[in-house]
Amino acid sequence: MTAAGSTPTAPTAPAAPAGADLDDVRERLWLAVRDGDEYRASDTVLGAVDAGLPVVTALLDVIGAVQARVGVEWAANRLTVAQEHAATAIHERVIAALGHHPRHRGPEPAGGRITVVCVDGEWHALPARLLAEVLRHHGHGVDFLGAHVPVPHLVGHLHRTGSRAVALSATFSLHLPTAHTAVTACQAVGVPVLAGGAAFGPDGRYARTLGADAWAPDARAAVDVLDRGLALPDPLRTEARAVSCLAHLADQEYTMVVATRRQLVKETLARLEERYPPMRSYTDQQRERTAEDIGHIVDHLAVALYVNDPEFLPRFLRWTAGVLDARSVPARSLDPALELLGRQLQDFPRASRTLRQARAALDHLLPAPHPPGSGRIA
Q1: Does the CA dihedral 75-78-82-88 come out positive or negative?
Q2: Contact 101, 46 (CB under 8 A)
């Protein structure tokens, strides 16, 4: 199947010659997944492995790198959501095919198994799947549980299998409070947790905040950590660390924002038209999406309060501004929403401070308002 606007799909891709340029293999896989051609994608990766490309390189530096590009292209509005999902599904199929390649087989597993799992609510399972395959290639026994695993089911699995470690994956930072629940529950049954994924921050700061036993920035580092082994968690030490790192939650601001989310969104949306006149001409669908955007801001504010990081919300807004700009939606519309939320939360010091810092950070990204009559939405 050929995606709209893409180049025609070739029937097959030639196998990569020995010593093939890695950039060339990546580019040919990118073209295949962009065109929605599963067979060409599989031929590209399996052909490269046949020609001598190491399996781990194929997994991480080809499939993983192209999947990252898919995300960048979606954010830049050069791929639709449907194309993004199709590309991910193709990568899943290619990984499955590669899993049966003779060169993928590692040594026989020794010792206990490792459970690789995504946080409850996390549907982006491809990074965890890549880690599971790399671990298998290195001779680890692996139970890959996939996306969106509720904590009770995870704990039940640990009881049944006696896993020696959990590799916990989260891509979206909104899932950090749930990740904390999972970390605590695993440790409570004596299983250490290795945290990984973009949600935990580029330096693993949130993994430390939430009390994970270890953090790894990528799959190769995760293999190194698990090869060395993780010490069994000490419940008393773990509890003391959690109390120390999350002492700020005693002010109940996180709990209050979560509990009043619906009201915060409703009130902000109701008043936003006064502060942002272009909303008066919005369609029902545009208003619905605006409400969703406000909800995302409130959700990220809540997590910022949970982890007590003043950079958390500004980082999300900088990313959001880029996504909106790529879709010709004025990012300036974010500022009045932040102001209105600040008014509602003026009696809550941490929330008010976080919103002020977010507005200040956003202000550096926004162009000056266009003069009246310029024909542009400011």
Answers
A1: negative
A2: yes
pLDDT of the chain, 378 residues: tens digit per residue: 333 333 333 333 334 444 458 999 999 999 999 999 999 999 999 999 999 999 999 999 999 999 999 999 999 999 999 999 999 999 999 999 999 998 888 777 777 899 999 999 999 999 999 999 999 999 999 999 999 999 999 999 999 999 999 999 999 999 999 999 999 999 999 999 999 999 999 899 999 999 999 999 999 999 999 999 998 887 667 666 666 778 899 999 999 999 999 999 999 999 998 888 888 888 888 889 899 999 999 999 999 999 999 899 999 999 998 898 888 888 888 999 999 999 999 999 999 999 999 999 888 765 444 333 222 222
One DSSP character per residue, 90-105 reads HHHHHHHHHHTSGGG-
DSSP type of residue 58: I
Task: Give the other-Cβ count within 10 Å of 121's Cβ.
Answer: 16
Q: Considering only CA atoms, which of 227, 127, 86 is closest in space to residue 144?
A: 127
List of residues 6+ apart from 246 with CB closer than 8 A: 180, 209, 306, 308
- What are the residues facing 169 on neighbouring strands? 118, 196
The type of residue at 330 is: P
Q: What is the DSSP letter of 191?
A: -
Residue whose token pair is 């773990």: 238
Between CA 353 and CA 284 the distance in angstroms is 33
Q: Alpha-carbon distance 365 to 378, whole Å? A: 14
Closest CA to 108 of 130, 137, 134, 131: 137
Question: Token digits for 77?
Answer: 């509005």
Beta bridge partners of 114: 142, 165
Q: Taking each helix axis from N to C terminus, what angle separates 38-50 and 81-99, rounded to the nearest 10 degrees?
A: 40
